[in-house]
Write a structure and sequence with these properties.
2 copies of one chain form a homodimer.
Chain A (H helix, E strand, L loop, with lengths): L7 H15 L6 H8 L3 H7 L4 H20 L1 H4 L4 H15 L8 H4 L6 H24 L4 H25 L3 H8 L1 H6 L2
Helix pairs in contact in A: 1-2, 1-4, 4-8, 6-8, 6-10, 8-9, 9-10
Chain A binds a DNA duplex (18 and 18 nucleotides) through helix 3.
DNA sequence: GTCTATACGACGATAGAC
DNA sequence: GTCTATCGTCGTATAGAC
């Protein structure tokens, strides 16, 4: 078999980039060609299921990166507040300071059960990770869960507001307030 | 000229509904036909510019409803806290308790300058209206502006989280906390 | 104002050569 | 693994009858 023109890592990165910006329906094979350098037929070779399969693969991969890197401090041991601050730092980096949208937002304008259910699982895991920080900081279980959901919503909302207002402020402030929101009294 | 099969009000409502759920690229003429009962050619008669023109018309109309109804208390006179509570009530109604997405989110996965600039203006006006409540409650100008942006982001984030988690809780809590966020110490 | 009919291009998808 | 070529379908858009 021929050497791949584009490595898996690079391909997934490019695919995630274009679907993040344009959403599922808004991303055509021309767009994907521009983003990856591969023509349709080559993409069908790697993803026989077409765009659906690409999106599922992207979600799996980005989800793993998010958990393994951004959420890692939340799942580790140690001082809750410090862990929260570290997650906040990594969130800012992951979303490029608010210039990169969230796939869980841009890919859920769909009726695909598979995509919706994957997105939901991902966000639920995210919430659980945040809730763990709260509990470790002494926040009662139910309250920690609520705060975690609100914190995730705040991040997502910061991204939407920053996109629409074309101003990174909202997202950056949401990130800056994360630790206090999760662990404060 | 023939009587319209569908009134303007009904047509706009249906169009807004389908674009809200599916976004710009995800909305086909078949979808629109299903939603409105009008075939493509009839739609082109009312909107010679096609989907672009529909979206712009929808944004103008929904924006007006939002300002005239939801934001009205924010722009009125009277007790700031009470006005904030009233806006919160209307927000909950407007977004159907979190079951209806926001056009400013679902339509901004586009490269259309016109749509983006309209969405931006709408959200900026929304922020200004919220900031007015804060100032009327004695919050310093810059702080009121910041709180207003964060409140708008919180609402948008609540909608995204509620959509992805399939749970209205996040949106409803964001609405419930609005008045305190805008006017509290 | 709404419809049927029609043209065209773009898109998703596949076959087969290298 | 990647490409060119090709096919059918669907979204976009218009013409013309009622």
């Amino acid at each position: 078999m021929r050497p791949a023109k584009v490595t898996d890592a690079q391909l997934y990165e490019d695919l995630a980039g274009v679907f993040r910006r344009k959403g599922y329906a808004g991303t055509s094979y021309s767009d994907i060609r521009e983003a990856t350098g591969l023509v349709k037929a080559s993409l069908y070779h790697r993803f026989p299921g077409g765009k659906d399969e690409m999106v599922n693969a992207i979600l799996r991969r980005v989800d793993k990166q998010f958990v393994d890197y951004v959420l890692a401090p939340a799942l580790a041991e140690g001082n809750a507040r410090e862990r929260a601050e570290q997650v906040a730092e990594r969130l800012e980096e992951f979303y490029a300071g608010g210039k990169r949208w969230c796939l869980l937002d841009t890919l859920t304008l769909t009726e695909s059960k598979e995509t919706m259910s994957h997105a939901r699982s991902s966000m639920e895991f995210w919430v659980q990770a945040f809730a763990r920080i709260g509990r470790d900081a002494g926040v009662p279980r139910a309250e920690a869960k609520r705060r975690a959901e609100d914190a995730v919503a705040a991040i997502e909302g910061g991204l939407v507001a920053s996109r629409v207002l074309q101003n990174q402020g909202p997202f950056l402030r949401m990130v800056a307030g994360l630790a206090e929101r999760l662990t404060g009294n």
